[in-house]
């Protein structure tokens, strides 16, 4: 598998003693082969570093880019870091966040028992993110005619999709909150991969409702294969049908609202209040035994 790297994101950045007073933040991205997606993640990293000037913020990726989480943690250990908060820049808690990342952290703890590692929650659905999504929707509405009204229009929110019902339900929750608070006539959720309905199925179903406008919002963070796939599906639908008029909003991207949500998740984790990442799991256990940050 080809691995992409970005030197300005490398976890080997020197750490000063003053910065090491608080846990180092390891900001974890999904990773992508697309340069645009890596550039967008780099923008988010810069924004988080600006928001946390007193903290060291390093980076790692789940896949398709370097460094991976295990490598980043080992580099931090070699640099003398003994307290790390892993902060996932991930919208949903699916297999990566429920299984893959915890397993990697347990391995790191086994190698270095003196290292305290805390795992924060996924971004999920938060007021800050809903404001970002609402802004993307408002920008896309400019494509409609001047007589456009939300109460006469449909909203389709598209999530990543997968085999995890918790993650799929998170997207459905975002759909309902956005659709109702913004005043759309009807709202529906679709998934770009592995879950039903697919984007194509949802578009065809909504067409039968005979509303004049349909707005599609990808509930994704960055550019990547799924964002391109959604765009291609919407374009093909537009070519087949004159009605409804369709506008495709941008995904969330690096935004102050995304940064604000990350800061909330960071504070929750370090104060021992990180919510469970699995609403259907037995006992709804928290991610880790948490060692709250001592002020």
CATH class of the largest domain: Alpha Beta
Query: On the 0-100 scale, what is the average pLDDT?
Result: 89
- pLDDT under 50 segments (min length 5)? 1-19, 282-295
Taken in chain order, the helices and strands follow as: EEHEEHEHEHEHEHEHEH
Quickly give the CATH architecture of the largest domain. 3-Layer(aba) Sandwich
Biggest sheet, open or closed, and with what strands and sense?
Answer: 4 strands, parallel
User: Which of globular, elongated, flat, extended, rod-shaped describes the shape?
Assistant: elongated
* Range of strand content: 15-25%
* Through-space gap between termini: 43 Å
Structural class: alpha/beta
Q: What is the alpha-carbon Rg in Å?
A: 20 Å
- Give the number of helices: 8
CATH topology annotation of the largest domain: Rossmann fold
What count of structural domains? 2
Care to describe what's here?
With 295 residues, this protein is an alpha/beta fold. The chain has two domains: 4-124 and 255-284, 3-Layer(aba) Sandwich (Rossmann fold), CATH 3.40.50; 127-248, 3-Layer(aba) Sandwich (Rossmann fold). It has helices spanning 35-51, 69-78, 95-111, 127-140, 165-182, 199-207, 225-240, 256-270, and strands at 4-5, 24-29, 57-61, 65-66, 83-88, 116-119, 153-159, 186-191, 213-218, 245-248. The protein has a four-stranded parallel β-sheet, with helices on both faces. The longest helix is centred in the middle third of the chain and has 18 residues, at 165-182. Residues 1-19 and 282-295 have low confidence and may be disordered.
